[in-house]
């Protein structure tokens, strides 16, 4: 029996997956998590064979979850189940060891096929995903932020711009009429999304990807 951990920050998606899987032959216990911290905890504490993993989660990205879990030889199989079909996201998940990649518009039959394929020790990528990878290989283009990192919110962009202007946390808070704690929270989110270690890294990524010029 295959015990599966369903990971998505939208309960309606988890409920839909449960409805598709709970009566299927060979499917065991269905666990659920809506954030990265719970995902890692459940994956370690429970007998999980497979994780259906969304990439965009409120605390830890699917990339980091996959990388962390795959560092352990006893890691469950992982299939990314996401709305992101561009080659940048797919390649990044492949690099951290994902076993399969499906888009959220996939049907029941393909989902079951992907699960069976991955549990046999093979990788599974939907046709749309494979086509995206092939298309990406034949296109020479300037890297875009959307190919590598999660989309920034309007507030995060505002704060990033002020960080590049060398404003302090308190100065940013005063300028945007928010608390210093809120600024710190957004800065932590920026560090995670841009994969930066410090403020200097944020500034470098801001200019590297042209984030300050985005609408």
Topology:
Blueprint: E1 2-7, H1 11-21, E2 27-33, H2 36-45, E3 50-53, H3 62-70, E4 77-82, H4 87-95, E5 100-103, H5 108-119, E6 124-125, H6 127-137, H7 145-148, H8 154-164, H9 169-176, H10 180-193, H11 199-208
Parallel strand pairs: 1-2, 1-3, 3-4, 4-5, 5-6
Helix pairs in contact: 2-3, 4-6, 8-10, 8-11, 9-10
Describe the structure.
The mean pLDDT is 87. The protein is α/β, with parallel strands linked by helices and 215 residues long. It has helices at 11-21, 36-45, 62-70, 87-95, 108-119, 127-137, 145-148, 154-164, 169-176, 180-193, 199-208, and strands at 2-7, 27-33, 50-53, 77-82, 100-103, 124-125. The N and C termini lie far apart (49 Å). Helix 5 links the parallel strand 5 and strand 6 (124-125). Helix 4 crosses helix 6 (127-137) and helix 9 (169-176) crosses helix 10. It folds into 2 domains: 2-137, Response regulator (Rossmann fold, 3-Layer(aba) Sandwich); 145-213, Arc Repressor Mutant, subunit A. The protein has a 6-stranded parallel β-sheet, sandwiched between helices.
């Amino acid at each position: 029996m295959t015990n599966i951990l369903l990971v998505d920050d939208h309960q309606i998606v988890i409920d839909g997956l449960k409805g598709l899987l709970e009566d299927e032959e060979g499917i065991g216990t269905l666990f659920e998590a809506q954030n990265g911290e719970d995902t890692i905890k459940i994956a370690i504490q429970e007998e999980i064979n497979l994780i259906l993993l969304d990439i965009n989660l409120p605390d830890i990205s699917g990339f980091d979850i996959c990388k962390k879990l795959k560092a352990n030889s006893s890691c469950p199989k992982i299939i990314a189940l996401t709305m992101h079909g561009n080659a940048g996201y797919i390649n990044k998940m492949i690099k951290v060891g994902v076993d399969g990649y499906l888009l959220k518009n996939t049907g029941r039959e393909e989902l079951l096929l992907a699960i069976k394929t991955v549990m046999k020790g093979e990788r599974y990528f939907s046709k749309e995903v494979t086509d995206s990878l092939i298309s990406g290989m034949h296109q020479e283009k300037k890297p875009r932020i959307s190919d590598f990192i999660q989309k920034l919110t309007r507030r995060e962009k505002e704060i990033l711009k002020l960080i590049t202007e060398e404003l302090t946390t308190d100065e940013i808070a005063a300028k945007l009429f928010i608390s210093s704690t809120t600024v710190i929270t957004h800065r932590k989110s920026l560090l995670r999304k841009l994969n930066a270690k410090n403020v200097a890294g944020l500034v470098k990524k801001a200019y590297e990807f042209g984030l300050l010029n985005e609408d």
